[in-house]
Amino acid sequence: MEKIHAVYNSIFNYLDEIKISPLSRAYTFSDSVYEVIPFFNSNSIAFESHINRLERSCKALNLSLDMDKTSKEIIDLIAKSNLINGYVYYQVSRGIDSIRSHMFDDSLSTETFGYVVSHSFKSQKLKVMTCEDLRWQRCDIKSTSLLGNVMSMNNARMSGCHEVIMHKNNILTEGGASNVFFAIEETVFTPALSNNILPGITRELLIDEIKQFGIKVEEGDYSVDDLKNAQSVWLTSSTKGLAQVTNILDLDIQLNGDNRLFQKCEQIFFEKFFS
Ligand code: PDD
């Protein structure tokens, strides 16, 4: 098996040779944030946007991180791997406690960790189910605290689903690891940015791109019932690209009819970023 290239506290190594303290606050408290940065044909996609979001996540937690050094490290990691298509997972934690304590010591040094893997950005068709959004009130921070997402997605997996579409008080938020879009007639709809969803980079790239082709996009508050009127539904993320939803199991919805608007959006997106 190919060794996975990684970096821990700025030292490059293979993933299976890195040793991490169990008192890392990433481990005990999820006191950490992360990014997933895709690259295709050796070029990273929206690199600056990912770095800017990582910086915002760090600021929200008061974590100090040298952004120039981090950017260079991520670029070097991709180069070292010799991979053509893939993504980097990069995580920043508060550091390592001497003894577990909720209140951290200001003298801790930020701990960083990244690895790079190959990924084939194939288009996917997904079965999903809706569920109550169990998460906290700062889902705009790309935190590694993902237990709500993990519980909901694995619950859905037991019913044969690949993803979930979450809602808070019946208002759609996002997927378990993606943002949600749907099309009704000639308009594309997606939940507006708020503390309840991650400001997805793919979401932003897609909205900007399709608007340039004259497609109408509305961002707002939508309910589970709105999905019942949709001709197509899809999820976006850095690893999924645009993934078409074919079934919403619990709502008894099958989306195998008119997918024109989804197909147009997918074509625009793939021509811009994956060709
Ligand atoms: N997740 N919402 C959530 C909860 C996510 O975890 C993700 C991505 C997105 C989409 O964001 P972006 O387009 O910037 O990838 C939205 C990554 C891929 C992950 O955790 O693996």
Write a concise synopsis of the structure shown.
Helix content is 28%, strand content 31%. With 275 residues, it is α+β, with helices and mostly antiparallel strands.
Features:
28% helix, six-stranded antiparallel beta sheet, single chain, 275 residues, alpha+beta, nine-stranded mixed beta sheet, D-amino Acid Aminotransferase, Chain A, domain 2, 2 domains, D-amino Acid Aminotransferase, Chain A, domain 1, binds N-(5'-phosphopyridoxyl)-D-alanine
Describe the structure.
The chain is α+β, with helices and mostly antiparallel strands. Helix content is 28%, strand content 31%. The chain has two domains: 5-118, D-amino Acid Aminotransferase, Chain A, domain 1, CATH 3.30.470; 124-273, Alpha-Beta Barrel (D-amino Acid Aminotransferase, Chain A, domain 2). The chain has helices at residues 25-29, 47-60, 67-81, 147-157, 201-212, 224-228, 260-273; strands at 5-8, 11-14, 32-40, 43-44, 86-93, 111-118, 125-132, 163-168, 171-175, 179-184, 187-191, 216-220, 232-237, 241-248, 253-254. Strands 7, 8, 9, 10, 11, 12, 13, 14 and 15 form a nine-stranded mixed sheet that branches. It starts with a strand and ends with a helix. The structure holds N-(5'-phosphopyridoxyl)-D-alanine. The site of N-(5'-phosphopyridoxyl)-D-alanine has 15 residues, from α5 and β13.
